[in-house]
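Example (one chain per record):
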Amino acid sequence: PDWDVLATLQEWGYPVDESGHAPEHSIENQLPFLQALRPDIRIAPLGISTLDGAEAERLAQAVVAAARGRDVLLLATTDYTHAGGPYPEQPPAGEDLAAFVRRQDQAIIEAIATGDPARLAEAAGRRGAFSPGMCGFW
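Predicted structure:
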């Protein structure tokens, strides 16, 4: 871990608790690629649960403070549509699962691309019974 970054986050009042990552698997999808590109990479994984808009803004300010003056790559990941197989969300009869997932995720992806949290919240809220449609949404 990048203990310098984590120490700055602690100064902002965010606890460092590695036990939260034990059952979490999202970093496992990214870490091997990052390590292949940069074997000396240091990471500061953040596991985020429920945040309101003000809390998300405060966390963003803390991350900016921790990254200031450093060569940093910020990488965020989440799972989007959970559909098919054992999941309750299923494509309509006759629609290919991959096409359905792409269609479901499109509004979320477009909202993320704007950089506007309010548009992301709006797009996620339009998912109906399956809102917000992604893991880690505050």
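Caption: The mean pLDDT is 85.
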